[in-house]
Each structure stands twice: as C-alpha cells, then as structure tokens.
C-alpha cells in the first residue's frame, strides 16, 4: 500500500521564479492538504483540496495556489518566489476533510 | 501569535527512563489534540491523540494527558528507547466533524541515550 509521495525531493530556485510541487495521496484517500515548515518551526497549514476544490486556506498570500486532479493528486504552485519561501513543503492526505492526515516526506525548496 | 506552544526545544533522557514532553495551547476552540513524531528526511507520523472529553489516553508506552483548565497537555514515554529519538510535534484542532486542520507547535527534539 503506497503511502503519500511527493516530488521532487529537493529543488533550488532563484528569487522571482515560479515553482510547482507535486503530491500523490495515499491509496484510498481523496483529500490533500499542504503545509509549509520553515526551519525551526512546526508545519503551517497552506490550504486543503477536496473534490478538486480549495476547501480551506491558511494565512498565505495569493502567490501560493494549488490544484487537485480527478485522480486526487495535487500540485502546489508558488509564484514570484521570495527568499522567505525557503522551507520544507509537506503534503498530507486523508479520507475526507475530517479524516486523519498522513504526511509525505516533503519537498525541500531553497530560494537563492 | 502562537496558539500551540512547545517551550522546550530539546530534551535528553537516559534509555529506560521516562520522557515527558509538554505543550500549551491558547485557543479555547481546540478540542482535539495530537502528537506527531518526525524523523529526519521523513514526514511527521501520527503517534497518539486525545479528545477534550478525556483527560488521559494510553497506547503502549505512550500516554497523553490533557488538563483543559490549564490548557496544557503532555506526552509521557515509558520506558524511553533510543529509537524514540526524534522531533515530537504537538498539534491541536477544533472539532473534527467538518474538516480537520491541525495547528502545530514548533516541536521538541528528544534524544534518548543508550
């Protein structure tokens, strides 16, 4: 039973560029949530997707956007990258928005 | 403003002894509390949870205690093992009937010495 997978594992971008991160949920899960974990901090909620729609959003600017596909996989897009966007980006999947969340290993984004 | 606080960045314990990790919260709407464990290069994994209708929940070596009046919870690990060495995150969520979005603390790094 495949768990939550994320790609890429690491990437390095330059300020002002755009980035797309990908997440495949655990088998049987239909909801995907994205979190940003800055160094020395806990994961901070970005948004949650269910039924291909953004259901809830945390305190993040519009530069952060996402998408969920019919197969429940999801993308996180960040435009106009800032140095402060450097962080570990975690994807979590669940069965429904109220289900227990299972986390992927994360994508480490470095903005230079 | 941190709604979930873990004031001890790190904790060092001898193998076989008890590890106690503490967490405080400020939001009265939180009524479901969780602990996650995170190893390097892995995502957080769920460890144990407690609902606000309880004050204690046990699962093997792990016990979580909730003091609602003090808005405080703690995780006890007995006996501690070297494999328990990891970062532990406390998280809290409002009633999970609709959606479930945990707010995380900054984590406590536990080191268990052989």
Features:
heterodimer, A: 112 residues, mainly beta, Immunoglobulin-like, seven-stranded mixed sheet, four-stranded antiparallel sheet, B: 114 residues, five-stranded antiparallel sheet
Q: In brief, what are we looking at here?
A:
Chain A is mostly beta strands and 112 residues long.
What topology emerges from the helices and strands here?
The complex is a heterodimer of chains A (112) and B (114).
Chain A: E1 5-7, E2 10-13, E3 19-24, E4 31-37, E5 44-50, E6 53-57, E7 64-68, E8 74-78, E9 87-94, E10 102-103, E11 107-111
Parallel strand pairs in A: 2-11
Antiparallel strand pairs in A: 1-3, 3-8, 4-5, 4-9, 5-6, 7-8, 9-10, 9-11
Chain B: E1 4-5, E2 10-14, E3 19-25, E4 32-38, E5 45-51, E6 56-59, E7 62-67, E8 72-77, E9 86-93, E10 103-104, E11 108-113
Parallel strand pairs in B: 2-11
Antiparallel strand pairs in B: 1-3, 3-8, 4-5, 4-9, 6-7, 7-8, 9-10, 9-11
Walk me through this protein's architecture.
The complex is a heterodimer of chains A (112) and B (114). With 112 residues, chain A is mainly beta. Helix content of chain A is 0%, strand content 51%. Chain A contains no helices and eleven strands. In chain A, strands 2, 4, 5, 6, 9, 10 and 11 form a seven-stranded mixed beta sheet that branches. A four-stranded antiparallel beta sheet of chain A has the order 1-3-8-7, with no helix packed on it. In chain A, strand 4 (31-37) and strand 5 form a beta hairpin. The radius of gyration of chain A is 13 Å and the shape is globular. Chain B is mostly beta strands and 114 residues long. Chain B has a single domain, classed as Immunoglobulins (Immunoglobulin-like), CATH 2.60.40.10. In chain B, strand 4 (32-38) and strand 5 form a beta hairpin. Chain B is globular, with a radius of gyration of 13 Å. Chain B starts with a strand and ends with a strand.
């Amino acid at each position: 039973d495949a768990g939550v997978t994320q790609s890429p594992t690491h990437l390095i971008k330059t300020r002002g560029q755009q980035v797309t991160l990908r997440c495949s949920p655990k088998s049987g899960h239909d909801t995907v949530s994205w979190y940003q974990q800055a160094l020395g901090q806990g994961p901070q909620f970005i948004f949650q997707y269910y039924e291909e729609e953004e259901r809830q959003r945390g305190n993040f600017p519009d530069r952060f956007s996402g998408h969920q596909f019919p197969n429940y996989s999801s993308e996180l897009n960040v435009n106009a990258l800032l140095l402060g966007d450097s962080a570990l980006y975690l994807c979590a999947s669940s069965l429904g928005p109220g289900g227990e969340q299972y986390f992927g290993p994360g994508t480490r984004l470095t903005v230079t | 403003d941190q709604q979930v606080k873990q004031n001890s960045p790190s904790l060092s314990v001898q193998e076989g002894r008890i590890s106690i990790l503490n967490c405080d919260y400020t939001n009265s709407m939180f009524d479901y509390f969780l602990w996650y464990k995170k190893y390097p290069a892995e995502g957080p994994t769920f460890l144990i949870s407690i609902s606000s209708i309880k004050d204690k929940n046990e699962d093997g070596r792990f016990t979580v205690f909730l003091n609602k009046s003090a808005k405080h919870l703690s995780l006890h690990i007995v006996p501690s093992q070297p494999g328990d060495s990891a970062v532990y995150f406390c998280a809290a969520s409002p009633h999970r009937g609709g959606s479930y979005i945990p707010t995380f603390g900054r984590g406590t790094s536990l080191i268990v010495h052989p």
